[in-house]
Amino acid sequence: MKLRWKKQIINLYTISVIVALPVLTFLFMGFESGILPNFLKQVHPGESAAGDDLWIVSHIRYLTSYVDAIEWQFASNRHFIPILSSLAVLPFIQMRDRFLPFASVRMKNAKKMECNWIVQSVFLASCVMYCAYLVTMLVMRVWCVNTYDANNCFDVFALWGWNLSASTHPYLYLLALGVLRCFLLPILFSLLTIAISYLVNKVYIYLLVPTVYSLIASALFSQGLYEDRWPLPLFSPENLLWPSSPDYWGYGHTVHGIWGVVCAMAIVILPSLVMIWYGMRKRRA
């Protein structure tokens, strides 16, 4: 493996992403349940750090199932996925700005090579996010005692008509859900980060744009509780967090949930490709 690809795979950004995702997931679980603030209130030596709220620890470890923790916590901290996906492609952006201008003169087809680097970098960023998801699964498996709770599990793939139940195949169910949330979804945000970086040189801008898009699109491209707004829900990034049933789209349409994934990805990928094409053309002008 070439040295530059070693640096792109093994670096501070990718390692921080793999570490940050399980830490953020655990922190969200702790603060939502109230366990972490209580751990900070130890008053006497020998007394439990949880104080009088020992039932909170018991609730998280014994009453919150493993499937429930993974399924719901990633919906709570979903807006960290864009920023982590953006961090995972920073090595490519740095390599493009520092190495490519000097190496392109020795390449037969620098434009094709740059496009290949973009594809490889986006795929690598998605793999990094999925590895972070696997680490999160391992941490939660150690923390949670019970595996499955029928009262709390949503079984999202049942809405798609897939025979993939969390009760019979909990680990396979979570792995499949992770493909949507931590592989396909990072593809959108990492590609959008690269696209914005071709137009803007400010690092804080192209790191924040995917998060801003996630916040706005989740608010605008969603089905209302008391009104139908089809087809806007088809383009929401939340479709990769919670696969929806045909009844969700409204107006009597029976659109399979997989189209929500396709449309949510297309509305980001197509403009990103246009921005990358324009940015590459502008740089070579």
Q: What would your notes on this structure say?
A:
With about 280 residues, the chain is an all-alpha fold. The chain has one domain. The protein contains twelve helices and no strands. It has helices at about 5-10, 10-35, 35-40, 55-65, 65-75, 80-90, 90-100, 100-105, 110-145, 170-200, 205-220, 260-285. It is globular and about 60 Å long. The model is unreliable at about 40-50 (pLDDT under 50).
Largest sheet: number of strands, sense, barrel closure: none
Rg calculated over all Cα atoms? 21 Å
Give me the secondary-structure category. Answer: mainly alpha
How many domains? The number is 1
Quaternary organization: single chain
Overall strand count? 0
List the helices and strands in order.
HHHHHHHHHHHH
**How much helicity do the residues have?**
55-70%
What's the total helix number?
A: 12
- Low-confidence segments: 42-51
Q: What does the average pLDDT come to?
A: 83
